[in-house]
Structures are given as structure tokens and as C-alpha cells.
Write a structure and sequence with these properties.
heterodimer, A: 105 residues, mainly alpha, Photosynthetic Reaction Center, subunit C, domain 2, B: 370 residues, mainly beta, Porin, 16-stranded antiparallel barrel, 3 helices
């Protein structure tokens, strides 16, 4: 029995299986393993990185819902409108690149 | 001992294995990946669907795994299995060179999860040619202090449950006694029957976990006396996200036999060191025996680990002669999320007058699981 996930504060998943699939996309987007954010003895426990991850998820959801969705409405591009994900900034690394790399300047 | 006898002894083993090295690499205890809270055997959904699927296999074949498979065939029932085939070339006790290829393990697991706090586990394995070995227990978890209680038949939690029963900290050379010593290894031989057990596990603070059990005889399987007391403290943790470690203390008492040991390891970057040291009293009548295990693993790329091991056993610790040392070099390759290939060369050495150094043993083992 997979059961319901514990200690979810931002994400809304009813099954652990669906949650795990989503978590895998995050780990790939950041190029990290589960232990980067989770205490593997009890994955529901809050850690420092997990708290940061929650804030990042809130930011991503807010942008998708409030900015990109409204932009889509105004441009009449409801379905095709861009949605951002962790990959949008992280590109497979822990730290998002905030400045253009030197070789591309 | 002739080749048929060797087959009879090593045809199938009765133990479940684990890889404590992975626990050290992740700074976590066995329960992170296994259904068994003290490790080995059936992997849980995280062990199957995350570690085995994504962190273990060669990257080029990562997409061969099935992301939907986590062992659950219904909402409540999880199944799994372990199968090992082994080929070995070795020197028999009469110094003749022998080769053998045999199935070593064929275990099927069933885990019925009744709710989030209770589960029933059964292992059915082939033992020798026509008999079955079983292990079964019921687990109550999420008790006060996040503790768990287990009753059934399983091995007490002592030391590292490494995936090599010939390590001297486990069963060693078993009855084969390559060097003709009375015993060449400690008590966890491959045909050991799991005793009836009542076991308690308590996560204490930080990464410290305490387990303690009382069980029927482990050494003398025919007895049903509640006679064996085993306890272990195990601590796991990490430093600055870069270094992970595990450290533990184990103790076992049964009649006049007692055994205590320390175990653990440390992992940094792609390197992991795992160790155990045990001292046993009266394992060999009236004597103190010493067993050591050291392993260095280097993950050169995901899916390929180079292994160097040192095993030591002194049946009668007089700090003089009569000890065995074994140096093992090899590789563990995980081409797929269900497959491991193990290659090893083992060099044995006996510290005894007039002894000759035997030729190396060569081993190839394939391990499939699901």
C-alpha cells in the first residue's frame, strides 16, 4: 500500500507514486539525488534544502498561475502559453545560472 | 571433500544479503531501501523505483527500466525476488583445482502491507535441491518515538549484513575449511536457520538507531529456548553534504558464547570505505576469535564500482600464528536496474608454519532482482 504522502505543504498529490514521479523530475532538473533535500531515514522530515525547495515551488507555481496564465489570457494563447519548471533556471545544476556565461558574452 | 559435497553445501544459501556500502554512501540506515528495517532482501518502493532504477545502473541503459514498477501488484501486496548464479574456480582441500557453476540464491518475497503501521513479510527460498527455506515476520511501525516491533523468524541485527557470506565476519569458509582450521569465519553461515525472534527498533535522536532482540538459539538451531540476546546501536549522518558516514556497535550473547563488534564506514566523493571488527568468545571452545572486514569501493562511473577487500580471521587470538588473511580485488557492474555482475579474484594467505599459499580463487556472480 503506497498510501498518502506525509507532510505535503505545497504540492497536491493524492498518491505517493505520483509524488515520486514528480520528485524524480526535480532531481533531474537540479542534477541531485534524493538525499540532497531529504533525510532518507524519514523522507517527510523537513531539512534546510527541503524548506528552500518549497519556496522555489511556491515561486514557480505563482509565476505559472499569476503571470504566465494571465499573459496567456491576454494573448489568447491559453493552452500554448509557456510554463516554467525547475529546469527553466537550474538546467541540471544545483545553483541556477543568474549571469550569462563568459563564453557567450 | 569431493565436488558433489561442495555442491551440496553451497548449492543454495539461506541468507538474505544487502549492501551496507550504499547505506554509508547515502548516510542512511538500511530501512531507506529495504522493507526489512534491519536491511537485506526485498527492496521497498524507494529502493526499487529510485535507487535501483536511477542511481545504480549504467547511464547509457537507464531508460531500459520500467518507471511504473515498484513491486506493488495491488494496493496492499508487494512482491520481489533475488536470484544469483555463481561460477568459481578454487583449490579444493586436497589442493586440486576445481571449478563449479551453481545457482546460489532463489528467493521470492511477499510483503502484505495491512496499513501504514503494520505489515507481514514472507520469504520463500530454495535451500539445497529439494527443500525450502523460509523467513517470516510481522512488523508494527510508527509506535511512540517512531519505534517498531517485529515478531517472527529472522536473523538478529548484528554488524553489517554484507552480500558475501564467505566474509569472515559472516560465515567465512563455512565447512569447506580450506586450510583445515576448526572454523574459518563467524556464526552467520549460509545455511543458518532464522530463529524465532522478538525485536524492537527505536530511532533515538539525530541519526542514531537502537535495535535489540531476544530470540531462540541461533547457534544451536535445534533448541527452542529463548536464549539469544542481540543489540545494536547504529549512527548515520553527513558532514557538509560531501561526507557521509555510518558507525555502529553490536553485541550478541547466547549461553557462554558472546560476540561484540564495531562496524561502519565513510564515503567521500566516489570513494567509500566500509569496515567491521568482531571479537567472539567461546565460538571455538574457550578461545577468543577475531574477525575483520575492510572494503574500499571506487565508483568510477555510475554502474561500475571497483572493489578492494581485506578479510582477516584468527580463530584463537594468541597474536602468534594460525590466522587467515584474504585479499579480494574485483568489480561490481550494474548494467540494468535488475542486474548485477560481480567479478572477483581472491588471494588467501595462512599464517601458519609449513603452510603453502593456495592459488587464487576466481569468481563470477550474476545477480538478478525485481
Amino acid at each position: 500500500m503506497q498510501g498518502k504522502p506525509n507532510n505535503l505543504q505545497v504540492l497536491e498529490f493524492d498518491s505517493k507514486r505520483d509524488l515520486k514521479k514528480y520528485m524524480k523530475t526535480i532531481s533531474k532538473d537540479l542534477g541531485v539525488k534524493c538525499k540532497f533535500c531529504h533525510d532518507l531515514n524519514d523522507k517527510s522530515i523537513d531539512t534546510d534544502h527541503k524548506k528552500i525547495a518549497r519556496e522555489m515551488m511556491r515561486m514557480q507555481m505563482d509565476l505559472n498561475k499569476s503571470f504566465f496564465a494571465l499573459l496567456g489570457d491576454s494573448l489568447h494563447m491559453h493552452e500554448e502559453m509557456t510554463q516554467i519548471s525547475c529546469w527553466t533556471c537550474h538546467r541540471g545544476t544545483k545553483e541556477p545560472q543568474t549571469v550569462r556565461p563568459k563564453e557567450q558574452r | 571433500m569431493n565436488i558433489h559435497c561442495f555442491f551440496a553445501i553451497l548449492f543454495f544459501v539461506n541468507l538474505s544479503f544487502a549492501l551496507p556500502r550504499f547505506g554509508v554512501q547515502n548516510g542512511t540506515s538500511c530501512i531507506a531501501c529495504h522493507v526489512n528495517p534491519t536491511g537485506s532482501g526485498l527492496r521497498n518502493d524507494y529502493g526499487t523505483n529510485v535507487v535501483a532504477l536511477e542511481e545504480l545502473p549504467l547511464e547509457r541503459w537507464l531508460d531500459k527500466g520500467n518507471e511504473d514498477w515498484d513491486g506493488y501488484i495491488s494496493d496492499h501486496l508487494q512482491i520481489g525476488g533475488d536470484f544469483r548464479l555463481q561460477g568459481i574456480q578454487y583449490n579444493d582441500s586436497d589442493s586440486t583445482r576445481k571449478s563449479a557453476f551453481f545457482p546460489m540464491q532463489a528467493d521470492i518475497y511477499f510483503h502484505l502491507k495491512l496499513n501504514n503501521n503494520a505489515g507481514i513479510f514472507t520469504k520463500i527460498g530454495v535451500r539445497k535441491k529439494s527443500t525450502l527455506s523460509t523467513e517470516y515476520w510481522a512488523l508494527l511501525s510508527n509506535l511512540p518515538q517512531n519505534a517498531w516491533v517485529r515478531v517472527g523468524r529472522t536473523l538478529p541485527n548484528y554488524g553489517l549484513r554484507v552480500d558475501d557470506h564467505t566474509s569472515f565476519i559472516r560465515g567465512g569458509n563455512f565447512k569447506r575449511t580450506i586450510f583445515g582450521l576448526e572454523k574459518e569465519g563467524l556464526i552467520f553461515g549460509p545455511l543458518l536457520n532464522p530463529p524465532a525472534i522478538l525485536e524492537l527498533g527505536v530511532p533515538m535522536f539525530g541519526g542514531l538507531q537502537w535495535t535489540s532482540s531476544i530470540s531462540t538459539d541461533v547457534l544451536n538451531n535445534s533448541s527452542e529456548k529463548l536464549n539469544n540476546l542481540t543489540t545494536q546501536f547504529n549512527y548515520t549522518g553527513s558532514i557538509n553534504d560531501n561526507i557521509t558516514y555510518m558507525g555502529g556497535f553490536s553485541y550478541m550473547q547466547e549461553d557462554n558464547f558472546s560476540m561484540l563488534g564495531i562496524s561502519g564506514g565513510i564515503s567521500f566523493s566516489d570513494f567509500t570505505w566500509t569496515f567491521e571488527a568482531d571479537q567472539a568468545e567461546n565460538w571455538i571452545d574457550g578461545n577468543t576469535s577475531l574477525a575483520l572486514y575492510d572494503e574500499i569501493a571506487w565508483e568510477i562511473i555510475q554502474g561500475v564500482q571497483l572493489i578492494g577487500k581485506y578479510d582477516f580471521f584468527d580463530p584463537k587470538t594468541d597474536w602468534q600464528t594460525g590466522s587467515i588473511s584474504r585479499y579480494t580485488f574485483g568489480a561490481e557492474i550494474y548494467p540494468l536496474n535488475i542486474m548485477e555482475i560481480k567479478l572477483q579474484a581472491r588471494f588467501n594467505q595462512l599464517d601458519q608454519d609449513n603452510s603453502t599459499t593456495p592459488d587464487p580463487e576466481y569468481l563470477i556472480q550474476t545477480h538478478f532482482w525485481f
